[in-house]
C-alpha cells in the first residue's frame, strides 16, 4: 500500500467515524424531543413554562426529567455542530486527496478504468430492471422525490426513475443529510443503498437499489434531481 493510499484510507475511516457519531447524536436528540413533547411531560417542549398560573412549580410534570432533558439537548446540539464542522473538513480533505492523487484508493482507480469504456455506451441505456428479490416491505415514510434522471447517469444505472420517492438514501432519512452521504461515497468510490417507493398499480411498492455516486459525462455525481416532498 502506497503512502497516498494509506492517507486516503485514513481519511475515509475518519469521515465514516464522524458520520456514525453524527447519526448517534441525532438519534439521541430525536429521543429527547420525543420525551419533551410526550404526554408524560405535558408536551412542554423546550421552552414551555414549568410554573403554574400563580408562579408555583407545576405539580403535573416531572421537573427533573424535563430540566435534565433540556440541558442534555443543549449539550448534544453543541456536540452536533462540532461534528458537522469536523465532517465538513474531513470531506474537504477527501476531495483534496482525490485531486492530488487522481483517485482515492487503488481499488477505486481500477473500478474507474474498467467502467470507462462502458460508461460511454451507457449514455443511451435504459434504466436497469429491478430484480424481484429487491422488492421489500418498508415501514418508513418517503421524504424526497426523484426527477430528471439523465440517461447514462449513476442514478439511471442504479435503476432510479422519475417519480420514485426516497425512503432512505445511504441510511439518511432526511434531505439535509444527503449531501454528506453522497460526497463521502463519491470520494471513496463506494455504493449507497437506496430505498424507494415506486408508483404502480393501485399504489406504491418499496424497492431497494444500489447507487454509486461518481463523476460522469453530465453534471453532479448522481445525474438526477432530488426534491423534498
TrEMBL record:
Keywords: Chaperone, Proteasome. InterPro entries: Nas2_N (IPR040815), PDZ (IPR001478), PDZ_6 (IPR041489), PDZ_sf (IPR036034), PSMD9 (IPR035269). Residues 103-123 are annotated as: Disordered. GO terms for cellular component: cytoplasm; nucleus; proteasome complex. Residues 146-200 form the PDZ domain. Residues 103-115 have a biased composition (Polar residues). The keyword Cell inner membrane does not apply. GO terms for biological process: proteasome regulatory particle assembly. Belongs to the proteasome subunit p27 family. This is 26S proteasome non-ATPase regulatory subunit 9.
Amino acid at each position: 500500500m502506497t503512502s497516498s493510499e494509506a492517507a486516503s484510507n485514513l481519511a475515509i475511516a475518519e469521515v465514516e467515524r464522524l458520520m456514525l457519531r453524527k447519526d448517534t447524536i441525532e438519534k439521541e436528540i430525536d429521543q429527547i424531543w420525543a420525551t419533551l413533547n410526550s404526554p408524560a411531560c405535558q408536551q412542554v417542549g423546550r421552552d414551555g413554562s414549568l410554573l403554574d398560573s400563580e408562579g408555583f412549580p407545576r405539580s403535573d410534570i416531572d421537573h427533573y426529567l424535563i430540566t435534565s432533558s433540556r440541558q442534555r439537548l443543549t449539550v448534544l446540539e453543541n456536540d452536533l455542530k462540532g461534528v458537522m464542522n469536523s465532517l465538513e473538513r474531513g470531506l474537504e480533505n477527501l476531495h483534496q486527496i482525490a485531486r492530488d492523487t487522481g483517485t482515492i484508493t487503488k481499488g477505486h482507480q481500477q473500478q474507474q478504468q474498467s467502467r470507462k469504456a462502458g460508461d460511454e455506451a451507457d449514455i443511451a441505456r435504459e434504466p436497469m430492471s429491478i430484480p424481484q428479490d429487491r422488492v421489500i416491505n418498508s415501514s418508513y415514510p418517503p421524504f424526497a422525490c426523484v426527477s430528471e434522471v439523465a440517461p447514462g447517469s449513476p442514478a439511471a444505472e442504479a435503476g432510479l426513475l422519475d417519480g420514485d420517492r426516497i425512503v432512505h438514501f445511504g441510511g439518511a432519512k432526511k434531505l439535509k443529510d444527503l449531501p454528506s452521504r453522497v460526497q463521502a461515497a463519491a470520494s471513496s468510490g463506494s455504493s449507497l443503498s437506496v430505498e424507494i417507493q415506486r408508483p404502480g398499480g393501485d399504489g406504491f411498492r418499496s424497492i431497494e437499489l444500489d447507487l454509486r455516486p461518481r463523476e460522469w459525462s453530465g453534471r453532479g455525481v448522481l445525474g438526477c434531481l432530488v426534491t423534498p416532498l
